[in-house]
Amino acid sequence: MTERTNFEAYLDKHGKLIYTNVGVSMLPLLRQGKDLFILVKKQSERAKIGDVVLYKRNDKYVLHRIIDVRSDDYVILGDNCTDKEYGIKDSDILAVMSGFVRNGIEHSVNEFPYRIYAFIWLRTVPLRIFLKKSLHLVKAKLKTYFQRSSYEN
């Protein structure tokens, strides 16, 4: 894909896109610089809970998982994120992940191990958000405590 070609044009022409992951929002499923994801252009049917979709948000491309399907939009969350995204419309979604490549081996989202991963990941969203936010708060408190202690000594 050339720099001038955007994802929409590429998907319109080829119907499928294989690309490398950038960022940490989909950890542990997709590792930056190590894994590839395989996308197929979204058709007219609605996406489903658990689908990992490529969508456009403020002129940026985002790859995250659908955690709720509502009548007019979707609630979406990266596997490694704590902030849900609301108001994502069907028109925002460009493609749906059909698989990924890890260590040179292609895996389908229809494989049993992936389906188990997605099932567990979806069922533990509230717990994972709570734990990540709690850990972040504890780290911030400890950092403040140790910074204050170093000034006092």
Write the layout of secondary structure elements.
Layout: H1 7-14, E1 16-20, E2 36-41, E3 52-57, E4 60-69, E5 74-77, E6 85-88, E7 93-102, E8 105-108, H2 112-123, H3 125-152
Antiparallel strand pairs: 1-2, 2-7, 3-4, 3-7, 4-5, 5-6, 7-8
Q: Would you summarize the structure shown here?
A:
The chain is of the alpha+beta class and about 150 residues long. It has helices spanning about 5-15, 110-125, 125-150, and strands at about 15-20, 35-40, 50-55, 60-70, 75, 85-90, 95-100, 105-110.
Structure in words:
The protein has 153 residues and is an alpha+beta fold. The chain is 31% helix and 32% strand. It contains three helices and eight strands. Strands 1, 2, 3, 4, 5, 6, 7 and 8 form an eight-stranded antiparallel β-sheet that branches. The longest helix is centred in the C-terminal third of the chain and has 28 residues, at 125-152. The chain is globular. The mean pLDDT is 93.
Figure out the total of helices: 3
Strand content: 25-35%
H/E element sequence? HEEEEEEEEHH
Taking the alpha carbons of the first and last residues, their distance comes to 57 Å
Low-confidence stretches: none
Number of strands: 8
